[in-house]
Automatic annotation (TrEMBL):
The protein's name: DUF4038 domain-containing protein
Superkingdom to which the source organism belongs: Bacteria
UniProtKB keywords: Signal
Annotated signal sequence range: 1-21
A Pfam family: Collagen_bind_2
Keyword Cytoplasm: no
InterPro entries: Apiosidase-like_cat_dom, Collagen-bd_put, GH
Residues in Putative collagen-binding domain copies: 363-454
SUPFAM superfamilies attached to this UniProt entry: (Trans)glycosidases
Chain ranges of the Apiosidase-like catalytic domain: 31-361
Length: 470
């Protein structure tokens, strides 16, 4: 028996001691129509994630509980976190994760170690009903050759044994990397997790402006697709020579993924972060704001996405008050302050809207827009169920809507405010023909609204407020 196999057996034995007995979060599954997530009981699960990438390495136990409690209160149900940022990873207590920077030899101790700290945070999340999308190893060190396929197999086996019994795990292979960079390693991690952990879903987190489907869509270990729509403006795009040249139009990734066979769910797992410079590297650039993260969310979800992940520049790197230097990408806020940035508090309204009406029947339907779908920031995105319609505008411009596509003699129309989650009633109209709806306020970037149409046979007071007949 070679040393690698011996190490693998020892790790599996030692890993078993860390499993807690009491958890409350059941494992997720893919819905029967293969487009969404579902809870274990079959009820809808809308992924509302946050990028807490350095959660395990930079926060104390007390800070981690504060962070998780805040995210739960704001409606987040998934935290995306790196298990290892690099092979040199150590936590806030000074505990190194690995022996000799080798992923095949995690450093395990009886009293306290890196992995017990991870265990504690994962179990605290489970007690709060929060899933942890665990990135085994960030892509940079893999691309640079610090992890080979043999090491990856041992490491993924260790992870599957230690965290497979926990109910609130999602495996997020990769880490800001093209699948073609170290393809064999990524497939080894994916296949090993898939073989040893049949309970939890697995995906791949790709490089900016790419999607996991490019490399792994037909791999059995990939249960759903994620894409990273990135942090650049239209005029900063560097993917003009790439097969998928979408710019800020993140809805196009969903549209493309949902055309693939076999059908798998897809969503934006890393859009532009609130508080990060547009284009990332020039800290003098204007920064993405709450309205931008809202736009990315509603665009991608209305295009058929099964969820959405929010991000914040200071939070994703867990920048602390002890850090006197400016953080990465010009971060000047601290994580415990930035958790209250406006965009973070507004994400729950997207989740609530999607779950407010029959969820699994929802489909994207641009035919609802009778004319003028628009380009770039003027783009309208429409989705519907059997008796409801949602249409999103980022600029608050007028929209021409084709009626008669849902059940009911009448439609009850209202405006949904993505900033507050409040409805403004418009009125009831015959469910036929075409009508023009005029959102509140003057057209401008960030004056975003959702037109909500509910099919009904019950007459209400007819109002012409906000619309004109055509």
């Amino acid at each position: 028996m070679n040393r690698l196999r011996t190490a693998w057996l020892c790790l599996l034995l030692m890993a078993g001691i860390a499993v807690e007995a009491q958890q409350t979060t059941p494992a997720l599954k893919i819905s029967s129509n293969n487009r969404f997530f579902a809870n274990a009981d079959g009820s809808p699960f809308f992924w509302l994630g946050d990028t807490g990438w350095l959660l395990f390495s930079k926060l104390t136990r007390e800070e981690a509980v504060r962070y998780l409690s805040d995210r739960k209160a704001k409606g987040f149900n998934v935290i995306q976190a790196m298990v290892l940022h690099t092979v040199k990873a150590a936590n806030v207590y000074g505990d190194s994760a690995l022996i000799k920077r080798n992923v095949a030899t995690p450093l395990l101790k009886k009293d306290h170690d890196y992995w017990q700290h991870v265990d504690y945070i994962v179990d605290q999340a489970a007690a709060m009903g929060i899933y942890v999308a665990m990135v085994p190893i960030w892509g940079t060190d893999v691309k640079e050759g610090y992890v080979n396929s043999k090491q990856a197999a041992v490491y993924a086996s260790f992870l599957a044994k230690r965290y497979g019994p926990r109910p609130n795990i999602i495996w997020m292979n990769g880490g800001d990397i093209k699948g073609s960079d170290s393809l064999a390693v990524w497939n080894t991690i994916g296949n090993t997790l898939y073989k040893l952990d049949k309970k939890h879903l697995i995906t791949f987190h790709p490089r900016g402006r790419t999607t996991s489907s490019i490399w792994f869509h037909k791999q059995p270990w990939l249960h759903f697709n994620t894409f990273q729509s990135g942090h650049r403006r239209y005029d900063q795009d560097t993917t003009k020579n790439e097969p998928l040249h979408y710019g800020e139009d993140n809805w196009k990734f969903v549209e493309a993924d949902l055309k693939l066979k076999p059908l798998k769910p897809s969503f934006d797992a890393e859009p532009s972060y609130e508080g990060i410079p547009q284009g990332l590297h020039d800290t003098l650039e204007v920064r993405w704001k709450a309205e931008d993260v809202r736009r990315y969310g509603y665009w991608s979800v209305f295009a058929g996405g099964c969820g959405y992940t929010y991000g914040n520049n200071a939070v994703m790197q867990m920048r602390k008050h002890s850090e006197t230097a400016t953080g990465a990408y010009g971060a000047h806020d601290y994580w415990d302050e930035a958790i209250n940035d406006p965009g973070a508090g507004q994400m729950i309204h997207l989740k609530n809207l999607m779950l407010a009406r029959p969820y699994f029947e929802r489909i994207p339907d641009q035919s609802l827009i009778a004319s003028g779908q628009g380009e770039k920031y003027e783009r309208l995105l429409a989705t519907r169920g059997k008796n409801y319609v949602y249409v999103y505008t980022y600029t608050g411009r007028n929209m021409n809507i084709a009626l008669g596509k849902i059940t009911g003699k009448l439609v009850h129309a209202s405006w949904y405010d993505p900033r507050t989650g409040q409805y403004k009633q418009i009125g009831d109209f015959e469910n036929k023909g075409t009508r023009e709806f005029n959102p509140p306020g003057e057209p401008a970037n960030g004056n975003d609204w959702v037109l909500v149409l509910d099919g009904t046979n019950e007459p209400h007071t007819i109002s012409t407020m906000g619309i004109s007949s055509k």
